[in-house]
Design brief:
90% of the residues lie in helices and 0% in strands. By secondary structure, it is an all-alpha fold. It has one domain.
Length: 52
């Protein structure tokens, strides 16, 4: 896999994670923040797998 493709996948994953974090901040609430934190953790794992 080329470095350019890895960087592109990482950029897409980073954008998705930033969007999830923004939704969590805007919507507020402990339950939503907890759910978003879990989603972000899974997103980070998926991003690491995609880049590897």
């Amino acid at each position: 896999m080329s470095a350019r493709l890895r960087l592109r996948r990482l950029a897409v994953a980073s954008t998705a994670l930033a969007g999830a974090a923004l939704i969590a901040v805007v919507s507020g609430g402990a339950q939503m923040l907890s759910t978003a934190a879990t989603a972000i953790e899974y997103g980070l794992i998926a991003a690491l797998i995609a880049v590897a």
